[in-house]
UniProtKB/TrEMBL annotation:
Name of this chain's protein: GDP-mannose 4,6-dehydratase
HAMAP family found in the cross-reference section: GDP_Man_dehydratase
Keywords: Lyase, NADP, Nodulation
Species classification: Bacteria, Pseudomonadati, Pseudomonadota, Alphaproteobacteria, Hyphomicrobiales
Assigned protein family: Belongs to the NAD(P)-dependent epimerase/dehydratase family. GDP-mannose 4,6-dehydratase subfamily.
TM regions (residue ranges): none
Species of provenance: Oharaeibacter diazotrophicus
Function: Catalyzes the conversion of GDP-D-mannose to GDP-4-dehydro-6-deoxy-D-mannose.
Pfam families given in the database record: GDP_Man_Dehyd
InterPro entries referenced in this protein's UniProt entry, alphabetically: GDP_Man_deHydtase (IPR006368), NAD(P)-bd_dom (IPR016040), NAD(P)-bd_dom_sf (IPR036291)
UniProt record, GO biological process: 'de novo' GDP-L-fucose biosynthetic process
GO molecular function, one term: GDP-mannose 4,6-dehydratase activity
């Protein structure tokens, strides 16, 4: 009997790669989709991966507990992956309450739906390295204290502790993956890696003249989304639920990531990159560096893609996309 997975946030980057992984493993994949997002672009990521016709979609919103209960009742999932969120950190200062509702309360709603309707389903929560915020240890592990620095991170912290609490209070098989930044050609254009690779492609093709960025000194531990969704799945295959850091163990500045992208097309970033205060944040997370040794040991997980390989793949995908729009 094939397993059924229910994914919130299926239209996002991770939802697409996770769907592909689970379909390859023979799962029935059902995604929760917001009615308001129904348009011709809704499944563009799933289409890019060639799997749009292989997943089922149900209408739902993380803010609507009764709808989520109905979905869990109808779908009868073996595994529930809660990937949906208002996930852009900068927007969370403009929309702190909406972020709290979707990213924080939304996760509690999914947990409640599972607890009330199908408590034997395994649950995954998309937690984030942003929860570490103002770093208190040079390498962040599952034991590092949290100090969130944005409304987004505060909301994620609530969702994280609710996941831990539902595991301890009700015995749910609920795991929290503390994932560090992960990117891909399917990354949203607002996030810095994709903003950079898209701009590099446009500059190379003569479609743009400059790239405006905020804090290029910030450092991140960047991996590939394809590798990271594998860790999500592995967490739900364990006998007992737990929390895991998923990271590469290498940190690189935004500026150095920019250099990698421009070098790939033989251009000098100094000629094109401008610093713009618009893209700075009210509070910054200066540096993130994960310690994935628990995931490596307990899950047998390892990242397979280097930052250089990933940025190159992203620039090439953006070049191909813009070239196809030119003809
Ligand atoms: P995306 O921003 O690409 O996708 C977010 C998804 O959430 C979209 O499918 C969006 O749907 C959906 N969504 C937002 N609000 C609601 C709502 N109220 N009800 C239902 N669905 C909603 O994120 P990623 O794929 O990059 O990330 C997946 C998860 O992992 C997120 O929770 C993110 O915060 C977290 N995370 C991501 C990391 C990363 O580096 N990518 C690192 C650590 C954690 P719609 O299409 O309708 O907008
Ligand atoms: P982040 O990702 O906030 O870490 O959250 P993002 O790519 O937005 O920013 C990374 C760093 O780059 C700096 N930066 C810029 N960022 C953007 N977006 N645009 C710019 O022009 C720019 N210039 C510099 C930022 O200040 C920051 O330091 C991502 C999201 O996927 C979250 O959902 C997830 O939880 C975390 O990663 C882990």
């Amino acid at each position: 009997m094939s397993k059924t997975a229910l994914i919130t946030g299926i239209t996002g980057q991770d939802g697409a790669y996770l769907s592909q992984l689970l379909l390859d493993k023979g799962y029935r994949v059902v995604g929760v989709v917001r009615r308001s997002s129904h348009n011709e672009k809704i499944d563009h990521r799933l289409r890019w991966l060639g799997i749009a016709d292989s997943v089922e979609m149900v209408d739902g919103d993380l803010l609507d507990l009764s709808g989520l209960c109905r979905i869990v009742k109808d779908v009868q999932p073996d595994e529930v992956y809660n990937l949906a969120a208002q996930s852009f950190v900068k927007t969370s200062w403009q929309q702190p309450l909406l972020t709290g509702q979707a990213t924080g309360i939304g996760a509690a709603n999914v947990l409640e739906a599972v607890r009330l309707i199908k408590p034997d389903a395994r649950f995954y929560q998309a937690s984030s390295s942003e929860m570490y915020g103002l770093i208190q240890e040079p390498r962040q592990s599952e034991k590092t204290p949290f100090y969130p620095r944005s409304p987004y991170a505060v909301a994620k912290l609530y969702a994280h502790w609710m996941t831990v609490n539902y595991r301890e209070s009700f015995g749910l098989h609920a795991s929290s993956g503390i994932l560090f930044n992960h990117e891909s050609p399917l990354r949203g254009l607002e996030f810095v890696t994709r903003k950079v690779t898209d701009a590099v492609a446009r500059i190379k093709l003569g479609l743009a003249k400059e790239l405006r960025l905020g804090n290029t000194d910030a450092k991140r531990d960047w991996g590939h989304a394809r590798d990271y969704v594998r860790a999500m799945w592995l967490m739900l295959q364990q006998d007992t639920a737990d929390d895991y850091v998923v990271a590469t163990g290498r940190t690189v500045s935004v500026g150095d990531m920019v250099n990698i992208a421009f070098a790939h097309v033989g251009l000098d970033p100094a000629e094109f990159v401008k610093v713009d205060q618009t893209f700075f944040r009210p509070a910054e997370v200066d540096v993130l560096l994960g310690d994935p040794s628990k995931a490596e040991r307990a899950l047998g997980w390892k990242p397979e893609t280097t930052l250089e390989q990933m940025i190159t793949e992203m620039v090439d995908a953006d070049l191909a996309r813009h070239r196809s729009q030119l003809v």
